[in-house]
Each structure stands twice: as structure tokens, then as C-alpha cells.
Amino acid sequence: MKTQTTPKTVPLKKSNSLSKKSPAQESLVKTTAAASTAAEKSVTNSRPQAEEIAAQAYKIWQQQGCPEGREDQHWCQAEKEICRDGSLASSPLS
To answer: Helix, strand, or coil here: 49?
Structure first.
């Protein structure tokens, strides 16, 4: 009868070559981090903030004589105006 042996694990040695980065690698990491931060800002700024939309919708509501039951229309109109004017967004919502 054969007995099964458990494979032994060997600890890996840390290599200094893996932990040190070349100047080109460090530059790439910095560039990638900067691009990531810029992309995050672009995403967060691609749509107007709710506070800004609410303020604009309130102005529209007042300009139209404070009608009741048209909150959604005022909100959508405010959002479109903000996007069109480029207050925070670079492209209008569809």
C-alpha cells in the first residue's frame, strides 16, 4: 500500500529587484495615478450636483409663477440648462 506524502512548501525569498522600481516604472506609476485622479474628477464633474439642479429648478418654478405638480419638469429643465451652459458638465444628458 502506498502512502501519500504532503508536498512541502518552501518559503519564497524576497528579491530586491522586485521591490525596487526603475525610474521609468516610477514615472509610469505617477502618470497612471495622475490619469486615474483626472478620470475620477471628470466622472464626478460630468453631471451637475443635486444642490445646483435644485436651485435652478426653484428659479424656474418661480419664473413660471410657482405652479404646482410640475416638479419633475422643472428639475429636468434645470438639469438641461446647467449642462447646456456648461456650469459643471461638458456634455448634456440624454
So the answer is: coil
